[in-house]
What does this fold into?
Amino acid sequence: MSYMVKPKKSLGQHFLTDLNIARAIAETLDKYTGMPVLEVGPGMGVLTRFLLAQGHDLTVVELDHESVEYLQENFPELKERIVEKDFLKLDLSTLFPGDFCVIGNYPYNISSQIFFKILDYKDRVPCCSGMIQKEVAERMAASPGSKTYGILSVLLQAWYDIEYLFTVPEHVFNPPPKVKSAVIRMTRNRVQQLGCDERLFKQIVKTAFNQRRKTLRNSLRSLVGKECEILSETIFDERPERLSVEQFIGLTNLLENHIINQ
It folds into this structure.
């Protein structure tokens, strides 16, 4: 390989250097060989090489032009499958006519935005895996009652089963990040319809957790008005981290006809 790409702080780049970890990340998609795969932020291709070796129908999206040039030179078989764009601005339906998986060593500064974007394609993405900041991985996989359970947990778990697979130390990156990392896998669950207004569900979850120290009665007053009689229900005694996804769905249905200015 002819040269090295300099990691750019502005893009949140921390290049993985441990090939065994890269292989293990690629293996998270073993059950989906043959299905199109989109790799986000391949950098110098440490994960890319294993995805190709495993026979995946691979497309990569990379914003960094220097990385794109490196990939074009070192992975000529990918030349027509390198998309030099911002993943968050991509219309993924233009890349894939059917179902596809997503994988990556995701930029830590936009990882939550990446997963929220995946939700826009939840009926097309049966599996999404990769490496992110350990703290974010813990939030994604958290159970009700946990201090890390929050907006990301509820909105993702409504549609995906989430596995925290393993922790990755700082020293296997160039440059080493200041935090530990973790590998996760999201597998689409069997839910086809939430059973409530999806837009309102998101609004209620976000409003509740934006004041997570308050009871639901206090945090949700802004949505229904201070004098709304529905707030006397016992569920409003709870704080948001105590509610399961199913309970948030029930709460959405309970509040639907009481929301001000829908």
Summary: The chain has a mean pLDDT of 93. Residues 198-209 form the longest helix (12 residues). The CA atoms of residues 139 and 154 lie 10 Å apart. The beta strands are 15-16, 36-40, 57-61, 82-83, 101-105, 127-133, 160-168, 173-174, 181-188.
